[in-house]
Amino acid sequence: MDYQNQLREFNQTKEFFIAIDSDGCAFDTMEIKHKKCFCPAFIEHYRLHDIAPLATEVWNHVNLYSKDRGINRFKGLALALKQLHNHKDIGKNQSLVPHAEGLKSWLEKENKFSMASLEREINKHGDPDLVRAYQWSFASNRLIKENTQHLRPYEGVKQALNLLSEKCDCLVSSSTSVDILTTEWGENGILAHVQMIAGQEMGSKSEHLALSGISRYESAKRLMLGDAPGDYQAAKNNGALFFPIMPGKEEESWQEFLQEGFPRFLELRFSGEYEEVRVKDFFNILT
Ligand SMILES: [Mg+2]
Known about the structure:
CATH class of the largest domain: Alpha Beta
Structural class: alpha/beta
Strand content: 5-15%
Distance between the termini: 39 Å
CATH superfamily of the largest domain: HAD superfamily/HAD-like
Bound molecules: magnesium ion
Number of domains: 2
């Protein structure tokens, strides 16, 4: 299936466009996915058991609490390996941390970082670094399936989506796979509020916004909600406004959006100081 073509069928039915990130923005999944899924699979598949506490610290820092929060999983993997390798406390254990050169060069030349694109590359020349990354990713997906059953969206999300979908064309833009997203949004009865779900298979968030035809909407009528700098970047690459769902203050952020952000957006009073203050606070809490 050509997923990107599917995005081109996104229909303009309203004056306003809103893209919503899923993990850590609509759903409280970031912590669970990293702490119970990606990180344990990282320790297992990269045989980091002897330095598990340090590996965990580095993993969580890169993927949850730094400016790289929300980064694509494979890029996050390469970054975690690099930071772990160079960590001030690694000492004689440095040799335990693989360089994963094959992964690095794939990340440099590829532009779609998904299981499918990784698999295509492995089929070409079976690089062991890529096989390992694939196995880690596969194991992570299995853990995600086991650990994230019946998640609930943050308080305020359902109510917000009800309002949003009346006035705006809504797109979910996420770097998780479409089938996981469809399950999460579907079982919470919020799938009907969005016109389409764009996931990992459809490219980057920036591409999601561009391909869905965001340029058809006036720039003051385009908005992205997200919890990571990559979401902010995707919005700005597409001339859209950005409302941050603050890591650790997600429910307050949704309340703020319901009470002030969304009315301002509809009244075209969102850009300028209101947006700037929120974006500044957002970047200040990530180290
Ligand atoms: Mg997110």
